[in-house]
Amino acid sequence: MTVIKSNKSTDLFLDHVVSHTDFSALRAKGLEFLKEKGLPALKEEEYKFTAISKKLEQSISRFSTAENIPLTQEQIKPHIFEGFNGDLVVFNNGVFDPSVSSVSKKGYTFETLSENQPELLGKIAKTEKDPFVALNNVFFEDGIYIKVGKNQKIEQPILFLYFNQANKGEVITPRLLIEIEDGAEVKFLENTISLDEESYFSNPVTEIKVGQNAHVHYCRFQNENRKSISVNNFEVDIHKDATFTSVVISMAGDLVRNNLSLNLLDTGCEGNMYGLYLLNGKTHVDNHTNVDHTKPHCQSNELYKGVLADSSRGIFNGKIFVRQDAQKTNAFQQNNNILLSEDAIVNTKPQLEIWADDVKCSHGCTTGQLDEEALFYLQARGIGKENAKGLLLFAFAGEVLEYIAVDSFKDYCLHLVQERLGSNF
Amino acid sequence: MLSIKNLHASIEGTPILRGINLEVKPGEVHAIMGPNGSGKSTLASVLAGREEYEVTEGEVIFMGKNLLELSPEDRAREGVFLAFQYPVEIPGVSSTNFLRTAVNQVREYRGLEALDAVKFLSIMKEKMKLVEIDQKLLSRSLNEGFSGGEKKRNEIFQMAMLEPSLSILDETDSGLDIDALRIVSNGVNQLRSPEKATIVVTHYQRLLDYIVPDFVHVLYNGRIVKSGTKELAMELEEKGYDWIKEEADSTAV
Ligand SMILES: Nc1ncnc2c1ncn2[C@@H]1O[C@H](COP(=O)(O)OP(=O)(O)OP(=O)(O)O)[C@@H](O)[C@H]1O
Ligand SMILES: [Mg+2]
């Protein structure tokens, strides 16, 4: 991509580059990219509705890396949802914290990136793909590398908990590389917790390789504080006959940008992307998704739904790329939004690029208000107006939650969603 | 029980109801007939509290309360029930969950304790028999994909569950087959009592053979232009509305 450079924010970061000894090639590449192209400026097409550089300049005052915070088991416990009994991986301002994690390593290997120095790092989420990948390359301190062994079927989910809080610096840079070997099955859950109400910027990059006939589920819950800014780059390579399902629930934050890319690299792949954004206040959530069909007989399904109150803003940009080789592709995309206020805004844009001729592809988007007829019907049966609204909104939003594959986590999300929508009665 | 005086209502500035007067006493059944577009559903909607309609004149007293001041939900809780001419489909809202919420909110308003799941289910089973509604239907989303007749049956089922004192049935008979018409009418009749009243909006004498009205009113151009007993319905069936329209148009100012 070509990036129109925004000098100021780029320089603010570049002023705080610390030299690292490992991954020098990757870091050099990131630095080069940033120096040459920089972070996206206002006119940059990929960040058209999300003035990220300006936001960073206005909200972040210390562009250095946030330092470790003391984390205790007691602090962590309330954030482990009921019914969870899998492995727990805790990130302390973006860096793995073994003192509060519990990693059984049953069926998988678990190392820090510095311990393993995996070749694959940076090969899935490529530097030139997004300036924030480049930024992550330069700034991450250490990350984790998980490798799920061949044919391993891991029953219990693996939970990633990110605890964030500005501490001296305000920049948090997690880095994950996950390799799922052939025939393995695993579910990942992710939740990010802000420890206070102060601003910070988190910029995680997650790279996943899903081997042949492996099946992976990955659910993220985004409910950070009202001043937090995050840009999440998440990219997955999916190999022959494998499936990958992503669910992203966004509920809060100042500005959240999610770049999600699924690369269907061989025949028989399935890639699923589900998203729900329930926004209020001034929260701005931008979901940019991209599915790349490269080979025949693959399928992708996408459903993103939004409920927007107050002066919140939602952006959905869904790219479907079907290459010439990818005959017999099935690709579905849907984005539906309900606006609850006159000041809420949604920008939705499907972007289809289809080079194969034997393809089934459909997309649709709707943006509207709450159905007044339905609301009156419920009220006419004695249900209070606010409850009736809640019921209708939950009926709308609940469809996405159904895709969460871990029931206990689904219940956790359900509860928070109901609370937000006023339908928990 | 219900007293409507000189009720005027308009939608988007267009007057639809132009001076309705109607007295309904406990135990009575009133039939409202009239040509298409005469304002029957509008009257029903205004009574149920639909906000799109603006009441420009007149008053409605229900059991001593000014009905027009109440929210739609409070009217329902006070005991007004409208069986819709066109029930809305609501995907994603389960019929059972919806009904339980409705029943319990109505009960709460009336100072009764909420029904637990078991109690609710047993009452539901009992009322389902009344209108011979299939359990399978109720395990689906509210009205979603229901046939026309199934929707109407579901309206009467909801009425049975909510135990209103005034029921307004807006063309509940249209779309029902012969058997369903009999079943639904039976249901309505079984729910009748000396304390309860019913207003049936219909185009057909057929329904009135089952639900025998005490009074029949003809609504035309937003006014009740003729009232009578059940014989009036038979006369209308025979002669149509032209004679009434002529009468009304010649006396209109
Ligand atoms: N939003 C609106 N704007 C303007 N006119 C409207 C609107 N809604 C309803 N009307 C008009 O109000 C009049 C009364 O409608 P209503 O539905 O009450 O008739 P009805 O007597 O129930 O007819 P039917 O027998 O066909 O059910 C009709 O002429 C209708 O076109
Ligand atoms: Mg009507």
UniProtKB/TrEMBL annotation, chain A:
SUF system FeS cluster assembly SufBD core domain span: 166-396
PANTHER family: PROTEIN ABCI7, CHLOROPLASTIC
Family: Belongs to the iron-sulfur cluster assembly SufBD family.
Organism: Rhodonellum psychrophilum GCM71 = DSM 17998
Protein name: Fe-S cluster assembly protein SufD
InterPro entries assigned: Fe-S_cluster_assembly_SufBD, SUF_FeS_clus_asmbl_SufBD_core, SUF_FeS_clus_asmbl_SufBD_sf, SUF_FeS_clus_asmbl_SufD, SufBD_N
SUPFAM superfamilies, A to Z: Stabilizer of iron transporter SufD
A single GO BP: iron-sulfur cluster assembly
Domain called SUF system FeS cluster assembly SufBD N-terminal: residue spans: 22-158
UniProtKB/TrEMBL annotation, chain B:
Positions of the ABC transporter domain: 2-246
InterPro entries: AAA+_ATPase (IPR003593), ABC_transporter-like_ATP-bd (IPR003439), FeS-cluster_ATPase_SufC (IPR010230), P-loop_NTPase (IPR027417)
Keywords: ATP-binding, Nucleotide-binding
Coiled-coil parts of chain: none
CC terms in the record's Gene Ontology section: cytoplasm
Domain of life of the source: Bacteria
Entry's family note: Belongs to the ABC transporter superfamily. Ycf16 family.
Cited PANTHER family: ABC TRANSPORTER I FAMILY MEMBER 6, CHLOROPLASTIC (PTHR43204:SF1)
Protein name: Transporter
